[in-house]
Amino acid sequence: MGANRVAVIGTGQTKYTAVRGDVSMPGLIREAAYRAVEDAGLTMADIDAVVIGKAPDFFEGMMMPETYLAEALGCVGKPLFRVHTAGSVGGSTAIVAASHVEAGVHERVLTIGWQQQSVSEAMWALSFPIPFQQQLVAGAGGYFAPFIREYMRRSNAPDDTGILVALKDRLNALKNPYAHLHEPEITYDSIKESFMLWEPIRYSETCPSSDGAFAMVLGSEAAAAQAQADTGIPPAWVLGTSMRSEPATAHGRDQITPQAGKDCAADVYRQAGISDPLEDVDMVEMYVPFSWYEPMWLENLGFAPEGEGWRLTEDGTTQMDGRLPVNCSGGVLSTNPIGASGMIRFGEAAMQVRGTAGDHQIDGVRKAVGHAYGGAAQFFAMWVVGSDRP
Amino acid sequence: MAPARDVAVVSVAQTAQRRAAAGLSETEMIQPAIRAALDRIDASISDIGFTCSGSSDYLAGQAFSFVMTLDAVGAWPPISESHVEMDGAWALYEAWVKIQAGHADTALVFGYSKASPGDLPRVLTRQLDPYYYGPLWPDSVALAGLQARAMLDAGAITEEEMAAIAFRNRTAAADNPNAQLRGSASVEELLATPYVADPLRRHDCAPITDGGVAVILAADDHARRWSDRPAWIRGIDHRVDSHNLGARDLTRAPSIALAAEKAGATGTFDVAEVHAPFTHQERIVVDELGLAEGTTLNPSGGALAANPVMGAGLLRIAEVADRISAGTAGRGVAHATSGQLLQQNLVCVLEGE
Description:
The complex is a heterodimer of chains A (390) and B (353). With 390 residues, chain A is an alpha/beta fold.
């Protein structure tokens, strides 16, 4: 909690798909931005500042594109701010936007996370050449697969936990009209039989590459009251925000359950008054680009003791009707425009609190967690949103 | 809006600004400046509540380049940290907001780049509208030439005045051991040189620079503990103009005047450091800021003496803060710019006790 209260008063998103060939770069972003502004009962003229985030500029082949987007975002003459913190950027961007309101600098801030991955090939864009670092030529999946294998060794998890996560998330995505992957035919067996990309990550256990944008309007206490009066939709109050980073390589660093993730969770729970995460949190949108990261993050974020996260997946706790629904939207496994993916997590958590999640709405969500990570599992951004004004 | 907390620059340090930091990675280049900024106040990274940096993947030639640079901070145990794909001046703005919001009391900010491995003017074309401007590859010097021509045609400046601006900045840089270009030929000699992009001559353009700068912010008593004479941030704001060059009056940059108004940059200043990578742009910035005669302008030599992209704006704030802390100035204003032809601008007002 910062000096002044802040709430999510509007959300908007694009339909996600492999190629949004029907819109230009500004067209894609405006689609989400205008929906968020309208959801808040506002027009662009009501927005004080725009905080925008995306992952590497090489993905679209445009350096610092936000200056080009100034007019499309209706912010000529306003502050325009660009965040880039790797895969966690969508979450970090929302946090930076929120801090503007908490600081009392602005009343209403529009924040947008986006990526147009169809323009390039993310797998190769993430395979850094020498001399920058040791060459993996393996993309993100190749980087994370060894850590997943180590998690399986340490936890003695059954080898199908990843399949169960993928099945759940892809079935959840069928309830989300904006999700990229809609695979009504998907089954446990079809996932198990899909080809192995990076042992133990199968094709159906990995995220797609998507085009899309997610936007939110963050407002002050007065702005939240006004928006609720105008739209009838309650705000999602920001109860805590946190970011933590650690180096890609450091002596003593545990890449399976990074200290930065633990610290980030502890910080945000402290702010939000959460002492028992499994008990106090009603749903989570966490950043799971590869199926096994659900049990891994359940442990890292304190929802399960170390080595026990897989049990929450296996026993149905993380299902839509479970005690702790995880990724009701279908998650990163169903939709991954990298620069937006963190903001989708944060925004979906807010939608659940506001009761605007449609067919994937969980009844009575009073506290929800949004989580994003990036880099070599080294950058973390989290927030807690809730229905009760802090 | 008056800031809720008093926040000051309490320490600054910069790398040597040079044409090519050959043999050094970005991480190796900026690390000594970060270390020096901490050492000046006898602090370590564990004393810092929030860290924020500004850099560009397009200059590094690598996606996620800033990830490696985190190694220059020593982020272990983990730290509260963020990064902007903007000049470090905006990283400072984020840190200032974070402190105002009550999430931190102290912050480390840095901005840096190595422009030398690429062809900077051509790299910067990739920041243009990708549908209409980008495919034409109009480089940053050519675009600045169009702007300078518009100013000459409007009677807003002369080529002699442009040469005098170059002469003043680079002569001032003779006293700046970190500057890349120190000292200048006479105005007459400068005017005798050929055009590189009519009406710009070589002296009208900032050099291509590798380098960076680190700044430490602290609030209230934290600032007083670390500095006998903190440089208090009295106001800071940033604004953006249109990207559409055809829709802009290129002789103006209204976002500067607007940011100055919002930052409370009125009255008189002992010192001003403005971020103008081309001589004629200094005139635009000074006019938009409404700087009074007698203000000491760019005593460091400004961007015309050293222009580390992504760091040159933050360097302006550092140069003003350093003079306030040294007691050679009481009140100063710093300006940072981003985008093509002064499209995006930040103004920061600093003051001693």
